[in-house]
Write a structure and sequence with these properties.
Length: about 45
């Protein structure tokens, strides 16, 4: 993860900004799925 983020942050390619957006969106989707699955397994207090 760190290497990918660092590469995107440096932004040598002109498409780096778009790549960062797609990566951020995909990671957010994954986080949402994980949080949903965790909330289902763990009892809500």
């Amino acid at each position: 993860m760190k290497t990918i983020v660092e590469k995107v942050k440096h932004g040598h390619l002109p498409r780096s900004s778009k790549l960062q957006e797609t990566v951020a969106k995909s990671s957010l989707k994954i986080q949402a799925k994980v949080s949903k699955s965790l909330s289902k397994t763990k009892p809500v207090l």
